[in-house]
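Notes from the 1:1 (GR / supervisor)

We went over the backlog. Supervisor wanted to see one worked example end to end before approving the batch request, so GR pasted a single chain during the call. The sequence is below; no edits were made to it. Supervisor asked that the structure be written out right there so they could see what the output format looks like.
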Amino acid sequence: MIQFKSLEISQIDTIISMMQDFYAIDNYPIDVEVSKKLFQEFISDEKLGKAWLIYTNEEIVGYVILTFIFSFEYKGKIAFIDELYIKEDFRGKRIGKQTLDFVKQQAVLLNVKLLYLEVENHNENAQKLYLANDFELHNRKLLKHKLF
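Structure output shown during the call:
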């Protein structure tokens, strides 16, 4: 049975360990100390979003992070599924689908108007999961500009 429990400050090291594994897939850099501080800030301010650990049979098997944005175009609060990670041994067991169902339910309760996410071009399994769960390709390009 899959359960979702809100991330607590005492579990920051646990989620960062998984985050390191997640980032290693695409060779993304991660600064552990900065990430710890960011999680403390994030957990302390509900206006920023929500994070949940994913459990199966009382074992942590992944996490999902939802961050909030305000959009005039979409008439209110929208959210970004910033990260969704399932440990390798637990992939292909419908945990990703159950996680998306959970996030969608939570988004409704949180009065979110739209969910965004991004996926790596090479991650075909994730793309199939998202498309099979009513996510659509966006007709715009996501651009970024780093300030720091």
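Supervisor's comment: The radius of gyration is 15 Å.
Batch request approved.
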